[in-house]
Amino acid sequence: MAHRQPSLPQRRICSTSDVLIVEDRRTAVAEAGPLHSGAVELDALDTPAAAGFDGQRTIFSSTGCAYLDLITCAHLVTAADQTQHPAEKPQ
User: Fold this and answer.
1) Number of C-beta neighbours around residue 79 at 10 A
2) Which of 1, 39, 50, 61 is the most exposed, fewest CB within 10 Å of its CB?
């Protein structure tokens, strides 16, 4: 009789109220499964639809390399800062 490992319970990282963000939905679903099928792609963060994300937990699920994730996050933080604190325009 073969030894079987007991199966571990599946634990959801995301709740239904969380916003799951991915670089590319098709790649995310292929690599991480159907949980990512309702994910929001990065491009949507710069649209009016993203205004509803305030007050919700957002989770970025990466399908790329860590260095590209760092660049992406730096870009998003810089863009958010510029939106919240626009530079004064010269008169």
Assistant:
1) 12
2) 1
- Check: CB of residue 20 under 8 Å from CB of residue 14: yes
Percent of the chain as helix, strand, coil, to the nearest 5: 45, 10, 40
Cα–Cα distance for residue pair 67/71, rounded to 1 Å: 6
Q: Look at residues 76, 82, 79, 85 and name the one whose alpha carbon lies nearest to residue 21.
A: 76
pLDDT at 78 (0 to 100) = 84
What does the pLDDT look like over 28-53, one tens digit per residue? Answer: 899 888 888 989 998 888 888 888 88
Please work out, in degrees rounded to the nearest 5, the angle formed at the alpha carbon of residue 72 by the alpha carbons of 82 and 81: 15
How many residues in total does the chain contain? 91
